[in-house]
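During the reporting period the student researcher (J.K.) took over the structure-prediction task from the postdoctoral fellow and processed the backlog of single-chain submissions. One of the processed entries is reproduced below for the supervisory committee.
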Amino acid sequence: MIGCLRTYDAGYYQLKNGETGYFMNNLGAGFDAYIARQINQSKLKKWCNRLYVGKLAYVMMLIIGLFQYRPSLVEVEVDGHKERFEQHGLLPFPISLFLEEG
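J.K. obtained the following structure tokens:
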């Protein structure tokens, strides 16, 4: 691969609070993003990791999230075409055909 150039697509996002960024493979919006943000801000994950049961934190946050999550408006623009999703639960936005766990 030395000396070989490749072009890759990158997605761009902008939140209503002004936060912006890029993503390479997949952007989650909705319930999955809510759970990821909650678990990353929680002390629960650190405690569960110390006890070697880190995945349990996700299960616990999933159960809590089922009662706390409220759908919100998402507006997506692709190649100048806008689409609005008002009551969504799970909205993955993949760029490639393949999604990988990471």
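The committee noted the following: The mean pLDDT is 81.
J.K. will present the remaining backlog at the next meeting.
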